[in-house]
Amino acid sequence: MNRQELVQLIRDRRSYLCIGLDTDIHKIPKHLLSHPDPMFAFNKAIIDATKDLCVAYKINTAFYECQGIRGWESLQRTVEYIPKEIFTIADAKRGDIGNTSSYYAKTFYETYGFDSVTVAPYMGHDSVQPFLGFPEKWAIVLGLTSNVGSADFQMQPLKDEKLYEKVIRTCASWGSPDNMMFVVGATQADVVADIRKIVPDHFFLVPGVGAQGGSLKDISEKGMNKEAGLLVNASRAVIYAGNDERFADDAHAAALQLQKEMAGYL
Ligand SMILES: O=c1ccn([C@@H]2O[C@H](COP(=O)(O)O)[C@@H](O)[C@H]2O)c(=O)[nH]1
């Protein structure tokens, strides 16, 4: 999906909601466990209930990889089931020497058909560039993450800026707002306006609303640009809004509440 299409989708749906399919086999409603593929059965119901309210789905690969081959099959069925007009994110946080990164890129863009993959930039330009050479595919680079440990390295002061600022500024020079986004945690709202000055045109993938306590209002008011420029993710707050037979209705209600709030900020 290209940027114009993503921007249009946000306008049409009055939403920049990304729903995180962090599907934990131990948390899904018990009645699904007799299904041949319980993780897919759960995801299918969540997608059916929320697909008109969001513009993206983010599949965190950890929840699938830990199930071995069956988990990868659930992931593949899920990404194939997501309607083609919705942006897909493999949250896999990959990045290695160039030769290996190019195979990570093929894995997520070609084998599984995702629009984007999250990329850890620690290994530098040759580890990120292989994710940038695919038309209408996106590298989503970790900029400033939502977790408390982001203070350990990302917040460290350099000569005249913080490490995360240097990472974002430098990575932006390797790609463009048409093939690169940045992860910026919703819990980092106090600095998001400064990050926006460094990369005015890039999309931010914003995790941390809901279970991690980030404020949708703050991140929207401080991080939005003229095209919205935000994909705000909520995983647990939507997919585990309920845990009985009505779980999909509860997910719909949670997503609707976020979408309505977003419509007010657009
Ligand atoms: O900085 C980051 C980067 C990625 N994540 C991921 O986003 C979701 C958040 O889940 P919630 O249940 O909405 O808290 C999850 O997949 C994380 O691994 C992040 O939280 N922060």
From TrEMBL:
Signal peptide: none annotated. Pathway: Pyrimidine metabolism; UMP biosynthesis via de novo pathway; UMP from orotate: step 2/2. InterPro entries: Aldolase_TIM (IPR013785), OMPdecase_type-2 (IPR011995), OMPdeCOase_dom (IPR001754), RibuloseP-bd_barrel (IPR011060). It comes from Chitinophaga barathri. This is Orotidine-5'-phosphate decarboxylase. Pfam families: OMPdecase (PF00215). GO terms for biological process: 'de novo' pyrimidine nucleobase biosynthetic process; 'de novo' UMP biosynthetic process. It is an enzyme of class 4 (lyase). GO terms for molecular function: orotidine-5'-phosphate decarboxylase activity.
